[in-house]
What we know:
With 113 residues, this protein is mainly beta. 4% of the residues lie in helices and 29% in strands. The chain has one helix and eleven strands. The chain has a three-stranded antiparallel β-sheet with strand order 1-2-3, with no helix packed on it. A three-stranded antiparallel β-sheet has the order 7-4-11, with no helix packed on it.
Amino acid sequence: MSALPHCPACNADYTYEDGTLFVCPMCGHEWAQAGDDSPAEESRDIRDANGNVLIDGDTITVVKDLKIKGSSQVVKVGTRVKNIRLVEGDHDIDCKIDGIGAMKLKSEFVRKA
Length: 113
């Protein structure tokens, strides 16, 4: 038998480890391991062009014309993008732009609206 803790949300004993988190397959709840001193959310501090901290669900405005690779379309200055999602990587904003579709943006080319 494993020494993994029970799920704090539903008390199921089918938990498993996923990197630095425990996961419950019964209810989908994820929580940090007890000995983990490094907070995962605070290490992902993504800031816009003005230095404001961005969070999931924010509305942003593009501050520079952005050419779309492999297309003749351009994301114009002032384009508002609602309900962003922050992701890991070089292009750290995942969003959907009206008239263009799903794309990834760099936080240095946007500002919080």
